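Sample pair:
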Amino acid sequence: MCLDPGWLRVLSLDGGGIRGLSSLLVLDALMKQIDPISPPKPCEVFDLIGGTSTGGLIAIMLGRLNMDMASCIRAYRYMSESIFKPRETLNIAAKVLAKYHVRGRFSSSALEKAIKTVIVSTGKSVDELMHPGIEQKCKIFVCAVSRECPGVIRFRNYRPSGPAPLNPRIWEAARATSAATSFFDPIAIGPFGQEFLDGATGANNPVEIALEEARDIWPNAMPRLQYIISIGTGEPSLAAFGDNLMSIGRTLIRISTDANAVATQFARAHPELAVGGDRSRYIYQRFNVSKGLENIKLHETAKISEIASATHRRSNSHRNVRSRCDNQGYPREVSVQKMYGLGYPSKSLR
C-alpha cells in the first residue's frame, strides 16, 4: 500500500458485531505493509474514515480518538467482552411488564460504560463533542438511524455543507451507531430527545456514503482519490426464505444488511474507481474474509479465536471486488502476514 502525498484516502468499515475484529486484523496488516517496524496510525494514513455499527465504533476509536492499531484492538476486545452479557433473568412480574415493551438483549448501560472507559483512557473528556469546533485532519462519520424518522443519519467530526446537523458527544455517537436493533436499546440525543439506533439496516456497508461524504468535503475529490478501502466482516451465510413470517422476516433483515451485495453494486456503479485510468492500480479495494465467519453470531465473544484464525487463513485470497463482479479488470493479491493470531492482550486498557 503506497502513499502518495497530496492524494485522498478513504476508509469504509462494515458493521458486524464481534466479527469487527476481523476488520481490525486486516487493517492492522495493511498498516504493517506501510511500515513493518513502526506502523502508522490509520488517522495518519486516511483523510476520511466512515463506519456503521461495530465499524462506526472502530471509526471513532481510530479517527476521533486517534488510537493506534494495537490500542484499538485491545479496546475493542475489552468492550466486546464487557457488553455482550445478557441482562439478568427477570422475575415473572417484570416479564409481564416487559412483554409490551421490546428491550435489547444486552445492557445498554454496560455499553455506555465501556465506551466512556475507552474515551477516558485516551485522555479525552466524556463530555467532548464529536465535532470539537476546530478542523480535524482525519475526518470521520458514523451511521445511525432515527427511530422517529427512518433514514440514515451521519454523525461527523466536521461540518458538512448545508444546515448544521446534530453534534452529539463522542460517547453518544458511539452508542448510537452501535445500538444494534434487538441487541441494545435506542439512545436519546439532543434537546428534544431524538432516539437513534445503529445504521446496519440500509447502511451496513457505508462505502457509497463514504464517497458521497468525500465529494461533499472536497469538491475536487474524484481526480484526487488514491484509495477507497472497504473492509468487511465476513461473507453472510446462505439461508432459504422459510415458510413462516418469522423466518421470512429474518431473511429480509439479512438481505437489507448484506454488505457484500452493496460492495458488488458499488463496484459496478463506479467502474472508474475499480480500476485506475491506466489500469496500473486499483482505487477501490474491498477486503473481506470469504469463509469461516458466516456462522459466527454478532455477540459470540467466545469465538474470538475462530475469527482470528479465519481472517489469517483467508487473508491471502482477498481480491479487488471488480474482478468478482464481471471477470474483468486485474485481480490484485493482498498478502497479509504476521497478524495477531490467537495470542491476545488481556481486556484491561493498560
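The longest strand covers residues 139-146.
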